[in-house]
Write a structure and sequence with these properties.
It contains eleven helices and ten strands. α7 links the parallel β4 and β5. InterPro entries: Aldolase_TIM (IPR013785), BATS_dom (IPR010722), Biotin_synth/BioAB (IPR002684), Biotin_synthase (IPR024177), Elp3/MiaA/NifB-like_rSAM (IPR006638), rSAM (IPR007197), rSAM_sf (IPR058240).
Length: about 350
């Protein structure tokens, strides 16, 4: 395959046009010697469509374990023997305390994740109440990761003030049966449609390093381009002891992770591309480079794994010459100008 012209890919993305499948694969298959040129081209798109600011997000695992699903990557699944803390959904005061902490960290959004196949009606009742309180008493945007969601449940959450729903595609449709058998790829797509129909913004991404091929990553990113989520969290697998993937050869290197992020920026130029779970483990010393294609990060941990301290992330952002963006997205800032786990991913 001929060497790609990264500048051509950047110009295509800035124009809002889609790369060809061959061009997308060429990014993932490009030589490590060309990595800096690739990142420069991806940053051209990021700067044009999203500016040079960084969105910081804080994630809480508000209900842990006790899940009937068999997602092979997840420490909370029914087939996992990982030593994790298990607990029912938090009470209101725990939610509010963590929401205030997120705001104190200059987080753009407070993200809440619940383990399980999907919420019960009682859980929806409780979440509607607490989301309304967070909006009124804390004043921070909210995102919820809650598994498979029915249309009426999505409508109730929207009415309560929820801004965004996270539900990741996680991988390609072809590869999905290799990572989960208790629900289907189509089930996940249906949840995203229910959320979108209810007027919720979408947060949807995937997990890289689950034995998928380059073609699977391209398929996933092209499908995300069709869905047009506002936010695209990309997680890089941490093999967790006690899960079916504990001994998987993820094939991940810091350089490959950067290529995936660059491709996501080319295919989703206006999205909030987030370097999410596993960045600390898989990107290692190259973490700062991730913010040339990506414009968003989580701080202080994920669902069952620890993450980089907020102070360290803030220093990294400052050292890059970037700035944390805390203005609401509806205030007309970079969203328009240029806008579920490695045991770490939202469900």
């Amino acid at each position: 395959m001929p060497e790609p012209s990264f500048d051509t890919l950047a110009e295509t993305a800035i124009a809002g046009d889609a790369l060809t499948r061959e061009q997308a694969l060429s990014v993932l298959e490009s030589s490590d010697d060309d990595l800096l040129a690739l990142l420069h081209a991806a940053y051209r798109v990021r700067r044009q469509r999203r500016g040079s600011k960084v969105h910081v997000h804080r994630l809480s695992n508000v209900k842990s374990g006790l899940c009937p699903e068999d997602c092979h990557y997840c420490a909370q699944s029914k087939i996992s023997t990982a030593a994790i803390e298990k607990y029912r959904m938090w009470n209101d005061e725990q939610f509010l305390k963590e929401a205030r902490h997120a705001k104190d960290l200059d987080a753009r959004r407070y993200c809440m994740a619940l383990s399980g196949r999907g919420p019960t009606n009682r859980e929806i009742d409780n979440l509607c109440r607490v989301i309304s309180r967070i909006k009124d008493e804390v004043g921070i945007d909210t995102c919820l990761s809650i598994g498979l969601l029915k249309s009426d449940q999505a409508e109730r959450l929207k009415a309560a003030g929820l801004d965004r729903l996270n539900h990741n595609l996680n991988t390609s449709e072809r590869h999905y049966p290799n990572i989960c058998t208790t629900h289907t790829y189509a089930d996940r797509v249906a949840t995203l449609a229910n959320a979108q129909d209810a007027g919720l913004e979408l947060c949807s991404g995937g997990i890289v390093g689950q034995g998928e091929s380059n073609e699977d990553i391209v398929d996933m990113l092209f499908h995300l381009r069709e869905i047009e989520p506002h936010s695209v969290p990309l997680n890089f697998l941490i093999p967790i002891e006690g899960t079916p993937f504990e001994n998987i050869d993820s094939g991940l290197t810091p350089r490959y992770c950067l290529k995936v992020l660059a491709l996501a920026r080319f295919l989703l130029p206006a999205a909030d591309v987030r370097v999410a779970g596993g960045r600390e483990v898989n990107l290692r010393s190259l973490q700062p480079l991730a913010l040339y294609p990506a414009n968003s990060v989580f701080v202080e941990g994920y669902l069952t794994t620890d993450g980089q301290l907020a102070s360290e992330t803030a220093a990294m952002i400052q050292d890059l010459g970037f700035e944390v963006e805390i203005e609401p997205e509806d205030a007309g800032t970079s969203e328009e100008a240029g806008a579920d786990e490695t045991a770490a991913q939202p469900a």
